[in-house]
Design brief:
Layout lengths: L2 H33 L2 H22 L2 H7 L5 H33 L4 H8 L1 H7 L2 H9 L3 H24 L4 H22 L10 H35 L2 H14 L1 H18 L5 H38 L6 H10 L1 H16 L3 H23 L3 H31 L1
Helix pairs in contact: 1-8, 1-12, 2-4, 2-5, 2-6, 2-10, 2-11, 3-7, 3-10, 4-5, 4-6, 4-10, 6-9, 8-9, 10-11, 10-16, 11-14, 12-15, 13-14, 13-15, 14-17, 15-17, 16-17
């Protein structure tokens, strides 16, 4: 199979996976929104940042390094497995014993048990990272698609049943926990990976060195993306937090599809190429096609946010319409930033990514804190401003890189 054919085949299956999972998630959200109150979604929104940050700390960018590597030994896989599982257990214990302090911080006692159960997803996801890397290296995206879709379908159906039976916010928590559990089980069934429990320090240093900058950059980006819900949950009502969490989930769906397609389908292939012009040409072609789809989509949602929210979620969620409309204004620069970031990642410029993310995080944090002292609406516009700043930062980085390559 040629490189072009590999990209097209990978692109198709990853697209099917993401569109299917986003579609299932969207349908599940619609059904659950009719059984659960905005406050239930607000509780989960507050906790999202804790599990999101934890997941970023587990892989440390080493997975990307193994995907990029031409020859990977079993000791490399074993080293990554031991590191992932070990770190995930440590992080889970930290979250478990600090959950009481989190509940006290937000004056919401129920957060204690919710965080302890939700954090199990960290361990479940950690034990299957090696299997996902093996399938990615062999470009077996069809199997990954089937596993992901089936896992999400089972998890959503069970969560809807729990919501119908009156379990409230626990339906949302169990959806995430069960999805990660099913994923891990199916990956273990299909990929017969048995770790040798050999920890190769040389291998660890090599792959950790590659992923360190990328891990820090991704960690900062994760905090930057999820901190708004936690700040809103602290200074505003739980209902407003729920409105924001749902609107944020809806507007990031297109960007999540783009991110997964590029990371899973395109990066493994282009990262092994040495021709800079071919890499840039392929990324430019993909970017144009993605922009043609996402830009009109965001524009439509901006104009029709109110009927979309009322039609799919119900009258109770009417207030989320203006939030979704504003957030979608920041969706366009977010997609541009995402494509530029992946271009830098493919070119191996992980330190450049880290610098951009770090500078923008500081600026974004200032914007968030200032806007939080003004109003709830100001926070929403602050998210849009932050996305625009991120886009500009990555544009400058790409421009400087292009200029440097010429001279």
């Amino acid at each position: 199979m040629t490189s072009k054919e590999s990209i097209i085949n990978s692109f198709i299956w990853v697209s099917v996976e993401r569109i299917s999972t986003i579609g299932l998630l969207f349908i599940g959200t619609i059904v659950l929104a009719h059984f659960l109150s905005p406050s239930a979604f607000g509780l989960v929104g507050i906790l999202t940042i804790f599990t999101a940050i934890s997941m970023m700390l587990i892989d440390s960018g080493m997975g990307g390094s193994l995907i990029k590597e031409k020859n990977v030994s079993e000791s490399d896989y074993s080293t990554l497995f031991i590191y992932n599982v070990g770190i995930s257990i440590i992080i889970y214990l930290i979250l478990y014993f600090s959950s009481g302090y989190v509940a006290e911080l937000y004056c919401l006692p129920e957060l204690k048990d919710l965080l302890r159960i939700l954090s199990l997803t960290i361990i479940f996801n950690a034990v299957s990272i090696v299997q996902r890397i093996k399938l990615t290296r062999s470009f077996d995206f069809k199997v990954m698609c089937i596993i992901t879709v089936i896992s999400m379908l089972f998890a959503i159906l069970i969560s809807i049943l729990l919501a119908y039976k009156g379990f409230g916010v626990w339906a949302l928590i169990m959806q995430q926990v069960l999805q990660s559990l099913f994923n891990s089980l199916f990956y273990f069934i299909y990929v017969r990976f048995i770790p040798s429990f050999v920890f190769d320090r040389k291998s660890f240093r090599k792959h950790f060195a590659f992923g360190a900058n990328l891990m820090c950059a991704t960690l900062i980006n994760t905090v930057n993306t999820n901190i708004s819900s936690s700040i809103i949950g602290k200074f505003f009502s739980l209902q407003q937090t729920g409105f924001f969490a749902q609107s944020n989930k809806l507007y990031t769906m297109p960007t999540n599809i783009v991110s997964s397609i590029v990371d899973k389908a395109v990066f493994p292939i282009l990262s092994k190429k040495n021709d800079l012009n071919e890499i840039i040409s392929t990324i430019s072609m993909l970017s144009r096609n993605i922009y043609l789809i996402t830009f009109p989509l965001f524009s439509i949602v901006i104009v029709l946010s109110s009927p979309i929210i009322v039609t799919f979620l119900g009258d109770e969620w009417q207030e989320a319409a203006w939030i979704l409309s504003i957030l979608c204004c920041g969706g366009i620069p977010l997609v541009v930033k995402l494509m530029l970031r992946n271009a830098l990642k493919t070119l191996g410029e992980t330190y450049c990514i880290f610098k951009c993310e770090f500078i923008c995080f500081i600026i974004g944090l200032v914007i968030l804190l200032v806007s939080a002292s003004i109003s709830f609406r100001a926070i929403i516009w602050g998210v849009v401003c932050n996305n625009i700043i991120l886009m500009i930062a990555f544009m400058i980085a790409i421009s400087n890189l292009s200029f440097a390559s010429k001279y």
